[in-house]
Write a structure and sequence with these properties.
about 250 residues; alpha/beta; Rossmann fold; eight-stranded mixed beta sheet; 8 strands; about 35% helix; AB_hydrolase_1; Alpha-beta hydrolase superfamily lysophospholipase; AB_hydrolase_sf
Length: about 250
């Protein structure tokens, strides 16, 4: 069953349960152009969480999945407010663990760095040390959606991702990328202080520099995801099992 949290601006954020319903809580946040169903539910993360006595709560980011798709309102502060709204609605008896992938991992890094007591431990997958949206031009991307002009590499990548899943609206996702790009990811600004496991596919060219983040983490470690690239890492049994083990041990 899908339930909704209400963001401060009235946007509804969809939440999906998986794993052990009586277990210790874990918030899961997917990446750009994905959603909770494709990133976590269909890839059997619920089984891995349940085996470790963990209850998963997977949110659909605004503009994705079953969450609302406003015409504007996709800045980084909006996404941080959404996480706050989800945690407030859940009213959990203990600080949850959290798993984020790609854009979801950047969001959790930012959130945990400025709200140090919100989570007990983090697993961050597919997290590049820089910001992939740094060179994103939203006008070029919109032209590419209309088959006009020649997009750059990042614009072409975003447009391709925006059209992968039929349940998503490419115009909305391009707008989202444009608004997110206004606040570039600066990992040095406020690194998470809680135990943090970084995991990246050993064939991931888009996050090949993940290990450069380790010196910023007071309690961090890194493990590769064998045989996976940026797009298929969430399907890895190694990824989901190690994430569940790490979060269960951090209780």
């Amino acid at each position: 069953m899908t339930v909704f949290a209400m963001a401060p601006d009235g946007v509804r954020i969809a939440l999906h349960e998986l794993g052990d319903p009586d277990g210790a809580p874990v918030l899961l946040i997917h990446g750009f152009s994905s959603n909770a169903k494709r990133n976590w539910i269909d890839t059997r993360w619920g089984d891995a969480l349940a085996e470790r006595g963990l209850r998963g709560i997977a949110m659909d980011l605004r503009g994705h999945g079953e969450s609302d798709r406003p015409s504007i309102g996709y800045t980084v502060p909006h996404f941080l407010d959404d996480v706050d709204a989800v945690l407030e609605q859940l009213a959990l008896p203990e600080a949850p663990g959290a798993v984020g992938y790609s854009m979801g991992a950047r969001l959790l890094w930012r959130h945990a760095g400025t709200r140090p007591h919100a989570f007990r431990a983090l697993v961050l997958g597919g997290l590049p040390a820089g910001d992939p949206f740094q060179r994103f031009d939203v006008d070029l991307a919109r032209s590419a959606l209309r088959d006009e002009g020649e997009p750059g590499e990042m614009e072409a990548f975003v447009v391709e991702l925006a059209g992968v899943f039929p349940e998503h609206d490419p115009e909305t996702l391009v707008t989202l990328a444009g608004e997110v790009s206004r606040t570039l990811f600066d990992p040095e600004a406020a690194p998470p202080a809680m135990p943090t496991l970084l995991m990246t596919g050993d064939k991931d060219r888009r996050a090949a520099d993940t290990q450069e983040l380790l010196p910023l983490l007071p309690d961090g470690r890194f493990e590769p995801i064998p045989g996976r690239n940026h797009m298929n890492a969430p399907t890895s049994g190694t990824f989901r099992r190690r994430a569940a083990e790490f979060l269960a041990a951090a209780r």
